[in-house]
């Protein structure tokens, strides 16, 4: 289904956040017979619905919203509406036509798109792909889950999108290059279970992409793909890291050296894998990565990473504060913790509680010495799971600012205070950017004079 297919039809946009707002403006331009917006979760964080939005579509809130959704020819749901929402379950039972803004957009732009998803690494990998393509004279527009909603993107010859499992779930068109960075259980409350989560995530591959590129080192991803044709980055048959001409680790395309691992400024083994995937995508798009290796090395060295992924915040105390608010799962937090191995470490965890199993985090920290500070809503449950570990000190506080203040007191000189929450931001913050802003402000306001 395309945006143009909505002309003359009754349409209900479900969600009043960033994606819902973009959908209303885009759909209104295509002449629907009737357009309404529905928000069943309005709270103190909700932004005003006014101006062009209100002119394009009235906003219906609360229980009355279901009747408007049920009466529409097409429901365009925001990614934040979970598959398990009772209204969505009932609408599907009734046979309602349900789509998303990204699915509408992909129908018209898929052939010009690199789509990146994964349980971890998708944000950094998609950003790397966009950055490296621009460096080799392949201009592109970057957007999706971490950037501008797809329906707000300008026209371009090439797009790089970071796509969440929620966005992938309703696609009926695959991008030209479909990329998957990793698979592990996440967002299970929103998808209905592990099997359903993998199904929705891998829906990105379901509609005939020209090329599939995956992280070949991820065991769950390898199992789910089976013998499907794919470029498996990180293996000897693709871009990989191995001993180079000077005896140190180098990135290679198969057996041809590209540049040293030391060129990549991002910490952690997981970021080596992210760059392997990004370079494999460039290769799949016809970029001669061997011929352009010097240009690519310079671009890699200049890559600053994402604003909310292991971003260090300067502080006069000598402590290193790290914003890793994009780490919304225990597995992502594990990678962040490993990146600061060998330094005194305090980790701030907690956010929207989706019932995730934190046992893998406990197992990973069994022999690690560090402090963990839990904040609402899931912080107390995470701390409970970590209880009894001999080298892990745990504390609970009421908010993020209190956590930063306590971390200053508990973290030894020269240590690291890492916000790697292992949970999403929603509930107490508008989005991950808002949580990041609160963290940065807390670092500033608690800083010693």
From TrEMBL:
One GO term of the biological process aspect: peptidoglycan biosynthetic process
Pathway(s) served: Cell wall biogenesis; peptidoglycan biosynthesis
Residues that hold ATP according to the record: 118-124
GO cellular component terms given for this protein: cytoplasm
Location relative to the cell: Cytoplasm
Record-level Gene Ontology MF annotations: ATP binding; UDP-N-acetylmuramoylalanine-D-glutamate ligase activity
Alphabetized SUPFAM superfamilies for the sequence: MurCD N-terminal domain, MurD-like peptide ligases, catalytic domain, MurD-like peptide ligases, peptide-binding domain
Enzyme Commission identifier(s): 6.3.2.53
Signal peptide positions (record): none
Mur ligase central domain span: 116-281
Main function: Cell wall formation. Catalyzes the addition of L-glutamate to the nucleotide precursor UDP-N-acetylmuramoyl-L-alanine.
Family statement: Belongs to the MurCDEF family. MurD2 subfamily.
The protein's name in its UniProt record: UDP-N-acetylmuramoyl-L-alanine--L-glutamate ligase
Organism: Micromonospora zingiberis
């Amino acid at each position: 289904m395309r945006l143009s297919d909505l002309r003359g039809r009754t349409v209900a946009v479900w969600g009043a956040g960033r994606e819902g707002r973009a959908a209303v403006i885009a759909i209104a331009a295509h002449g629907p017979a009737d357009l309404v917006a529905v928000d069943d979760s309005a709270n103190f964080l909700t932004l005003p619905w006014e101006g062009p939005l209100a002119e394009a579509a009235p906003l219906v809130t609360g229980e009355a919203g279901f009747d408007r959704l049920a009466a529409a020819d097409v429901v365009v749901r925001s990614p934040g509406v979970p598959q398990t929402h009772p209204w969505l379950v009932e609408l599907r039972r009734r046979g309602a036509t349900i789509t998303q803004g990204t699915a509408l957009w992909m129908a018209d732009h898929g052939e010009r798109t690199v789509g990146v998803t994964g349980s971890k690494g998708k944000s950094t990998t998609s950003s790397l792909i966009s950055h490296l393509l621009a460096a080799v004279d392949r201009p592109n527009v970057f957007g999706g889950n971490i950037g501008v909603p797809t329906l707000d993107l300008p026209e371009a010859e090439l797009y790089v999108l970071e796509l969440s499992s929620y966005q992938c779930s309703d696609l009926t068109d695959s991008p030209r290059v479909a990329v998957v960075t990793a698979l592990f259980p996440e967002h299970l409350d929103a998808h209905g279970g592990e099997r359903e989560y993998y199904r929705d995530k891998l829906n990105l591959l379901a509609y005939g992409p020209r090329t599939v590129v995956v992280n070949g080192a991820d065991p769950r991803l390898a199992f789910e793909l089976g013998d499907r044709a794919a470029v498996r980055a990180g293996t000897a048959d693709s871009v990989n890291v191995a001993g180079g001409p000077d005896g140190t680790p180098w990135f290679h395309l198969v057996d041809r050296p590209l540049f040293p691992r030391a060129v990549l400024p991002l910490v952690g083994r997981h970021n080596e894998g992210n760059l392997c995937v990004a370079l494999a995508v460039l290769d799949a798009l016809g970029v001669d990565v061997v011929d352009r290796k010097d240009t690519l090395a310079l671009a890699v060295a200049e890559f600053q990473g994402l604003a909310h992924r292991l971003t260090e915040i300067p502080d006069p105390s000598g402590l290193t504060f790290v914003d890793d608010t994009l780490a919304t799962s225990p597995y992502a937090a594990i990678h962040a913790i490993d990146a600061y191995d060998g330094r005194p470490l305090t980790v701030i965890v907690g956010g929207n509680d989706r019932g995730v199993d934190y046992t893998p985090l406990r197992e990973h920290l069994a022999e690690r010495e560090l402090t963990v500070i839990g904040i609402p809503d899931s912080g107390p449950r995470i701390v409970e799971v970590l209880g009894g570990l001999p080298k892990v000190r745990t504390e609970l506080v009421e908010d993020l600012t209190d956590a930063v203040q306590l971390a200053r007191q508990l973290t030894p000189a020269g240590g690291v205070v890492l916000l790697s929450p292992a949970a999403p931001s929603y509930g107490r913050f508008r989005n991950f950017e808002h949580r990041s802003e609160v963290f940065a402000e807390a670092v500033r306001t608690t800083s010693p004079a």
